[in-house]
Amino acid sequence: MAIQIRNLSVRYGAHQALRDVSVDLPVGKITAVIGPSGCGKTTFLKCLNRLIDLQEGVQVSGRVLVDNEDIYAPQADLLALRKKIGFLPQRPFPLPMSIYDNITFAPRIHRLSEAELLSHINGLTTAVAQSGNGEVKPIGRHLDEKTKWNLLVENYLRLAGLWEELRGRLHEPAARLSVGQQQRLALARALAIEPSVILADEPTSALDPISARLIEGQFKLLKDKYTLAVVTHILRQARRIADHVLFFYMGELVESAPAEQFFNHPQHQRTAAYLSGEIS
Ligand SMILES: Nc1ncnc2c1ncn2[C@@H]1O[C@H](COP(=O)(O)OP(=O)(O)OP(=O)(O)O)[C@@H](O)[C@H]1O
Ligand SMILES: [Mg+2]
To answer: What is the pTM of this model?
Structure first.
């Protein structure tokens, strides 16, 4: 799913947080969004699924095209948009229910029909096999309701790299999980809305290095199926995961380039200064 950003500017009252940003997010890749604190990374990400609307006194101008439709047009369908574009926040906040119910929550709200449920499971089983997260046994034709939901939960947990760890604990409260596990559960929940795009705002900043690497690993496995944009202030993490990099500085998009070029041959002096640690 293509996301094109055109002349995007954002003001919070008198403060201009983004200035005339135009860029396309590459499909099926991981785009890292980097830059010093306060440069507009979170603002940029929140503009892409209109979470920015929740801020008071914010003014947005310009266009964001998702599949060629301007999401800021008056007739834009916000519910449909947020179903296409999932958001992973900095800190996980599991729903106050079991691990299992955390995952089935969104699909149940969207009232999947029997046929949709089965088609999701089939698609997921293929995605899981391709992602290297193990294999779900082939499905027979006559599944009862409960088995279908079980398979759905197993598939999403596998996609988030959590199945082996949690298979015996599915009905425990999600709040008992470690923060790293909660963040992967948040990923599983984001995947359960069946989005095409996942936006993640510093998704590993609350995690220990091992949990952070697990999340990074899942992102890399998922990028064939999803377009990902990941805000990070950790340059090393951007180097590890990014196919493409956007560098913001004081509300302006300074450089957008494939990762290899960005890190080895930056085109702009400010990018070079940021990479060398002269500015931070
Ligand atoms: N609700 C708000 N009201 C007023 N100013 C805001 C608001 N939210 C953000 N800002 C300002 O807009 C600028 C960009 O903020 P943003 O959160 O996008 O930065 P960031 O790059 O994500 O920073 P960090 O790395 O610290 O998370 C900052 O100067 C910030 O203080
Ligand atoms: Mg931020």
So the answer is: 0.92
